[in-house]
Amino acid sequence: MVHDNLHQFGNLAGLPRSTHSFLQVIWHACVWFIWKERNNMIFNHKTEEVGLLLDSVKLTSFLWLKANKLTSVFSYTDWWRDPLLCMGVRD
Amino acid sequence: MLIDRDELWYRVLKARYGEEGGQLKEGGGDSSVWWRMLCGIRRGAWLGEGSWFEDNVCRVVGGGTSTYFWLDNWLGGVPLRVQFTRLFELSENKGATVKEMVERGWDVGGGAWVWRRRLLAWEEESVSECSSLLCDIVLQVSTLDRWRWVLDPIGRYSVKGTYRYLTLPTTPVETGLYDAAWLKQVPLKVSVFVWRLLPNRLPTKDNLLRRTALHHDDITCVEGCGRPETSHHLFFRCDTFGGL
Prior knowledge:
Chain A is an all-alpha fold. Chain A has helices at 2-10, 20-44, 50-67, 76-81, 83-86.
């Protein structure tokens, strides 16, 4: 089931093949943060707001992509405002 | 366990624990824990079926002096004791070596076959079947018998061969499934995490319960939604996280 979700998200219908690696990175970031948050709740008894979690996902996925120079022409604000643009979907 | 029987180590272990049926004995409660664990591996303990160790060890017979005819796995993949159970039960020389058997003559009616009683017709048939297996065998007196690890082409024990053997039959490998975990952009720890997540191998509460690490009353999701925490629930269904 989990695998299907990754597959579905990673190959999101209608988006060109070039975006798939981006989407997969985002998916990885999502599950990674959910898991970290879950552990944080259980072991540290702290909770984070969902909105903040989402921000972390955005920032982290940007950094991961940036570190590999795939998106070097884009700044964080671009990524924030219009991820699809950064993926090369729109001109 | 795979040392040759005339070597020093084997002789030391034999003196300490004794030997039975061509194998070192496990010994009672006074033998060391390590030794008993090793013997457990040999028996195939802690794993579902069969013995991954013994099933994959065989003897390569040279001169036949240190290989047991009935007991060792040296011909046809299983010991003759298993292939010809009835004959083994009836034989008077259960501990004979291959060399002794060939010297006495192992063709039909040869001196190697010594039985407790007269054989029945079908038992005679299985003797001839057994000796037809043996008729091509020529011992090389100058070479020693040695052990072989079946899973490795070179015949030496290898972790790789064993790992493959142990993982293959239980988890049919869907290669595509795990490939998805490895992305060069994400940190290694995240890939490892996803690699565990995909086949549901994360220590989520339901998995912990299955391994009896948790009690029944402690398996609900941290969000307090009251449902059991499975990886599917946690990552996609739970109201709080599902939003992501």
